[in-house]
């Protein structure tokens, strides 16, 4: 099968990682590196001299032999660049946040569908071995009916100037939640935040209630003295603790739960007599390849029609809409009911 040729746009912070991982794949040829800053191009040229470097995005669009474009530029430029790439017949991998607005995201997904092209969003956590294992446990039914998703992602910095802490950090947790539960089934949403040093909330809580009764709570902060990245996924049979700061044992499966005895006279559960169950704690062996390498290979397989996108344009647009609604809830200081 012929190699997929790809161009990487934006070689500042994230783009070099994309270029490195695509260049490491045998079935892929990195044809272009593009950035407005010449110094960024020269840095990459030293390590990857076979790549053609340019400051003109149009050079990639005009090349009919170029299969795909990965975009890792500032969020405000995503919509315009991705739209031009899709119109030029290129498959697109777009760094998160997908766009500045959900309407822009929706327009891109519709354009990709019309052009019969792949549009994937770079939510890297989804491609980690740990999250893949959690998804497997939930979808196989091993933990039972999904009851709740409780996540904490806090650290000191990096405070962003153009977005609040939900858009910067909670977007990761929403992408993980998206692999476990349908985000289209949210019944209500409530966001609360506090501002201390900037014009945007630096600490925030986002609570989601789903139509089937499942609930999700996400706590994020730029102002924590310690780094915590923990998620608890609770099911009717078992519970999962995911600690991303652990170097190897990132997942623990707790065979714990609670149920209530039924009263003989009316058959209803007695809330005063819960029965707690505490079994084994399992630490599964989880493969730990570089998530971006897995993502790069997955993008190629999607282009070839061998796999379906794990984070499609539709998924990215859905997450964008939730973040917009969270902004509305923050501004209005009240819960929002969703139709």
* Number of extended strands: 15
Number of domains: 2
Main beta-sheet strand count, sense and barrel state: 9 strands, mixed
Instruction: State the low-pLDDT regions, or none.
Output: none
Number of helices: 9
Give the fraction of residues assigned to helices: 25-40%
Radius of gyration: 22 Å
Q: CATH H level of the largest domain: which superfamily?
A: Dihydrodipicolinate Reductase, domain 2
The SSE string, one letter per element, is: EHEHEHEHEHEHEHEEEEEEEHHE
Mean pLDDT: 93
Question: How would you characterize this protein structure?
Answer:
With 339 residues, the protein is α/β, with parallel strands linked by helices. The protein folds into two domains: 4-122, NAD(P)-binding Rossmann-like Domain (Rossmann fold); 126-289 and 321-337, Dihydrodipicolinate Reductase, domain 2, CATH 3.30.360.10. It contains nine helices and 15 strands. The chain has helices at residues 15-23, 38-47, 57-62, 75-87, 102-115, 129-139, 165-180, 291-303, 313-332, and strands spanning 4-9, 28-34, 52-54, 68-71, 91-95, 119-122, 146-156, 186-194, 203-210, 215-221, 223-235, 239-243, 251-262, 269-282, 336-337. A nine-stranded mixed β-sheet has the order 14-13-12-11-7-10-9-8-15. A hairpin with a 6-residue loop joins β13 (251-262) and β14. The longest helix has 20 residues, at 313-332. The termini are far apart. 38% of the residues are buried. The model has no long low-confidence stretch (mean pLDDT 93).
């Amino acid at each position: 099968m012929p190699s997929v040729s790809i161009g990487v746009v934006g070689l500042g912070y994230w783009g070099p990682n994309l270029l490195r991982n695509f260049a490491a794949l045998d079935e892929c040829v990195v044809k272009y590196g593009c950035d407005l800053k010449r110094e960024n191009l020269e840095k990459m040229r030293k390590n990857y001299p076979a790549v053609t470097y340019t400051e003109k995005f149009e050079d990639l669009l005009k090349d009919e032999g170029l299969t795909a474009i990965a975009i890792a530029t500032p969020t405000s430029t995503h919509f315009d660049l991705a739209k031009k790439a899709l119109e030029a017949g290129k498959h697109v991998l777009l760094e998160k946040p997908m766009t500045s607005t959900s309407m822009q995201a929706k327009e891109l997904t519709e354009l990709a569908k019309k052009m019969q092209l792949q549009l994937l969003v770079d939510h890297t956590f989804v491609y980690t071995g740990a999250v893949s294992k959690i998804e497997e446990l939930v979808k196989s039914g091993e933990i039972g009916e999904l009851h709740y998703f409780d996540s904490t992602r806090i650290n000191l910095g990096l405070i962003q100037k153009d977005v609040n802490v939900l858009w910067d950090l909670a977007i990761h947790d929403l992408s993980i939640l998206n692999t476990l539960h349908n985000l289209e089934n949210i019944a209500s949403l409530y966001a609360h935040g506090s501002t201390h040093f900037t014009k945007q909330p630096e600490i925030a809580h986002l609570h989601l209630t789903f139509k089937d009764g499942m609930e999700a709570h996400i706590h994020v902060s730029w102002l924590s003295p310690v780094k915590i990245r923990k998620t608890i996924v609770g099911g009717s049979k078992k519970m999962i603790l995911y600690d991303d700061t652990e170097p190897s044992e990132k997942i623990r499966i707790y065979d714990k739960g609670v149920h209530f005895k039924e009263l003989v006279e009316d058959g209803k559960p007695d809330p005063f007599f819960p029965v707690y169950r505490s079994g084994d704690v399992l630490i599964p062996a989880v493969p730990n390849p570089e998530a971006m390498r897995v993502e790069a290979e997955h993008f190629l397989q999607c282009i070839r029609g061998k796999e379906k996108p794990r984070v499609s344009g539709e998924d990215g647009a859905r997450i964008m809409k939730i973040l917009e609604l969270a902004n509305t809830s923050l501004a209005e200081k009240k819960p929002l009911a969703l139709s």
